[in-house]
């Protein structure tokens, strides 16, 4: 009876061991590292797993894989951002080549003077407001030169007249640029032109105030002396 029981349990125990062995073999994935941490070559297997970006059964290895993947993704994105070309609207983008900016020294000064004279000619020919202000300047500048005042007051008198001409030229340039963009009626175009006209009015007011404060008392004294 004992021999028959042992003989009966022998095949059953062998079958159970075979089933457990097959389960253990099936639970091991092909790329899992099944060696102990102390076994030589374990670092090579981890390195190979990280290089293949395969999640291992070990928690440390999987954490290393995730950390490496995040680090590589950040590094690739930063590298692409550095190598990405700047758009034309970017303020750091290089300006397009301008053939009119290649002059240097006396050549540049000569071309600048010719362009300035051309601007004066256009303003006199096309801008009636500039012609009127230039006529006023032709009267006031000689008066400012002969009026008996101190040098500082003389500079203020002449500077206020020249300031009106400067602001009028800038206003004319703004109007020309707006008309170059579009001739249609637009709220922003009207606002830009009105602001330029307001700047001219401020310059004229400053000119009148300067001449009234400096030359006004002299004129009143001359009139009283003549009467």
From TrEMBL:
Catalytic activity as recorded in UniProt: a 1,2-diacyl-sn-glycerol + ATP = a 1,2-diacyl-sn-glycero-3-phosphate + ADP + H(+)
Major localization listed first in the record, in broad terms: membrane
Localization annotation: Cell inner membrane
One annotated Gene Ontology cellular component of this protein: plasma membrane
Keyword Cell membrane: yes
Transmembrane regions: 195-223
Compositionally biased tracts (Polar residues): 1-10
One matching Pfam family: DAGK_prokar
Cofactor mode of binding and number, as noted: Mn(2+), Zn(2+), Cd(2+) and Co(2+) support activity to lesser extents.
Binding residue positions for substrate: 108, 129-133, 154, 168, 197
Region listing for Disordered, in residue ranges: 1-98
Coiled coil, from the record: none
Keyword Lipid metabolism: yes
Cofactor or coenzyme needed: Mg(2+)
Function as written in the Swiss-Prot or TrEMBL entry: Catalyzes the ATP-dependent phosphorylation of sn-l,2-diacylglycerol (DAG) to phosphatidic acid. Involved in the recycling of diacylglycerol produced as a by-product during membrane-derived oligosaccharide (MDO) biosynthesis.
Record protein name field: Diacylglycerol kinase
Organism listed in the record: Paraburkholderia atlantica
